[in-house]
Automatic annotation (TrEMBL):
Residues involved in heme binding: C425
Coiled coil location: 310-337
GO MF annotation, one: oxidoreductase activity, acting on paired donors, with incorporation or reduction of molecular oxygen
SUPFAM superfamilies hit by this protein: Cytochrome P450 (SSF48264)
Protein name as it appears in the record: Cytochrome P450
Keywords: Coiled coil, Heme, Iron, Metal-binding, Monooxygenase, Oxidoreductase
InterPro entries, per the entry: Cyt_P450, Cyt_P450_CS, Cyt_P450_E_grp-I, Cyt_P450_sf, Cytochrome_P450_3A
PROSITE patterns assigned to the protein according to its UniProt record, in alphabetical order: CYTOCHROME_P450 (PS00086)
Family the UniProt entry places it in: Belongs to the cytochrome P450 family.
Function: Cytochromes P450 are a group of heme-thiolate monooxygenases. They oxidize a variety of structurally unrelated compounds, including steroids, fatty acids, and xenobiotics.
Length: 483
């Protein structure tokens, strides 16, 4: 590549160092940045990747020259015919994005706010049952609540009334982020030998379908054979969509918004034959499935980190409660809560949840700064180094939790939890609304306190996202009770 970087090993490249780091792969990239600078190269297997932490260069890639970098790097075991926003490219991505974007518009979010608050009321009921003198893992309840919100907002399924429906979805979503040995081995093969990806994908896909069929038709094998959670979830998502369309069921949820922009045509129809403002059935099911998975884990993890920060920063929590106490539940007032916004942004700066997903693939040869980028080159972002850069986030140390740093205008590519440019996270406003509503509901009623294990059990680990390894252990103090 003609760039500095860690010395690759035969066949493995730098994969071993990257994926066996004592913290996570993002920390490994940050260590390499300290050694080799803001632009360097490394190898995943024999695939070269350029890592960049210069925000000016990233602004060129993500915004100024977006037409040259409109694709993402394919995920391991990604099917070639997968048709959702994360995997699609070129005109197919533009068409899908333009159709789905209004689903997350302000008017839709106002409707979703009512649904979210009902789910959060159920969370408060669960928190009321906690003994104020006993530590507990709040992250488990936050995961449940995040899933409840997704099921309500995406499918109109109320877990409080349909526990027999919601529980399997929750368990399967948890399993998606806990790779089996079989899936782990195929993922490694896909990473190290991407030329044979069609083989790894086919093997994974058809064994998953067979396992699902056996699970449904040969019940006594269930104790020996578990279904692939991705296959199970996508199968049931497709069934929900079919039932809606078959019986003309209409609800106030995200699925309904997408169905209204969908033509009922054969799955084999190519994107070029679709009307400009419509999705086909595959695109509909794939995108609602993507939203369900992405919205569940990332938001629950963000709320877990926020709970940890609140428990360990009492002065900042008191200031946040003071701001929250001065407003009611009006949507317009909520989105204007300045310190609440800073607080969330600062937490996600310190603990970016899915940094690996912020990447691009060059679609057309171009010049970025002094660097010539060839077509097909993979670009990844060292988000950790950017978020902890003293030049971007000083004069207060970036290691310190200091929400007021967002009072100042920063470089547009200095904060990247949701990506940047035209291909940023489409659900960003939905996620931020959910997080803000959750914090408002919780902090109006409680003060989150640290306990004996809050710090000692805190550790990060990386699966699909970088999440707390041992949960978040806190105590709750009712605000109408003496401290």
């Amino acid at each position: 590549m003609g760039l500095p970087g860690p010395t690759p090993r035969f066949f493995f490249g730098n994969s071993i160092e990257l994926f066996t780091h004592e913290r996570h792969s993002a920390a490994c990239l940050a260590e390499w940045t300290k050694r080799f600078g803001k632009i360097y190269g490394y190898f995943i297997g024999h695939t070269p990747i350029i890592c960049i932490s210069d925000p000016d260069l990233l602004q060129e890639i993500f915004i100024t020259k977006f037409s040259h970098f409109h694709s993402r790097r394919p995920l391991p075991l990604q099917q070639h015919d997968l048709r959702h926003l994360l995997a699609s490219t070129d005109d197919e991505w533009r068409r899908q994005r333009s159709i789905i974007q209004p689903t997350f518009g302000i008017n839709k979010l106002k409707e979703m706010r009512i649904i979210m608050n009902k789910c959060l009321n159920e969370l408060i009921e669960q928190l009321d049952k906690q003994n104020p003198d006993v530590e507990f893992d709040i992250s488990h309840l936050l995961k449940r609540t995040s899933m409840n919100i997704i099921l309500n907002c995406a499918f109109g399924i109320n877990p409080a009334k349909h526990e027999n429906l919601s529980e399997p979805y929750f368990q399967r979503c948890v399993q998606v982020f806990e790779f089996s040995l079989f899936q782990t081995m195929l993922t490694i093969c896909s990473i190290l030998l991407p030329e044979l990806n069609f083989l790894w994908v086919s093997f994974f896909k058809y064994t998953s379908i067979i396992r699902l069929w056996l699970h449904d038709h040969v019940p006594f094998l269930n104790r020996f054979i578990d279904t692939d959670p991705n296959t199970w979830l996508l199968f049931h998502v497709e069934n929900i969509i079919k039932q809606r369309q078959l019986h003309g069921i209409e609800r106030v949820d995200l699925l309904q918004s997408m169905i209204e922009a969908t033509t009922i045509i054969q799955k084999t129809s190519s994107s070029s034959s679709l009307p400009k403002h419509h999705l086909n059935q595959d695109e509909l099911s794939n995108n609602i499935y993507l939203f369900m998975l992405g919205g569940y884990e990332t938001t629950a993890t963000a709320l877990s980190y926020l709970s940890f920060i609140l428990a360990t920063h009492q002065n900042e929590q008191a200031r946040l409660q003071d701001e929250i106490d001065r407003v009611d539940d009006d949507y317009e007032q909520l989105i204007k809560l300045e310190y609440l916004d800073w607080f969330i942004r600062e937490t996600l700066r310190l603990y970016p949840i899915a940094p690996f997903i912020v990447n691009r693939q060059c679609n057309k040869e171009c010049q970025i700064g002094k660097l010539k980028i060839e077509e097909g080159t993979n670009i990844t972002v060292d988000m950790h180094s950017i978020h902890y850069d003293e030049q971007l986030y000083g004069p207060v140390s970036p290691l310190k939790f200091y929400p007021e740093r967002f009072r100042e205008k920063r470089h547009p590519l200095a904060w990247l939890p949701f990506g940047a440019g035209p291909r940023n996270c489409i659900g960003m406003r939905f996620a931020m609304l959910e997080i803000k509503l959750a914090l408002v509901q919780i902090l109006r009623r409680y003060t989150i306190l640290s306990g004996e294990h809050t710090l000692s059990r805190f550790a990060e680990h990386e699966r699909f996202v970088i999440a707390p390894k041992n949960g978040i252990w806190v105590r709750l103090q009712r605000r109408d009770s003496p401290m």
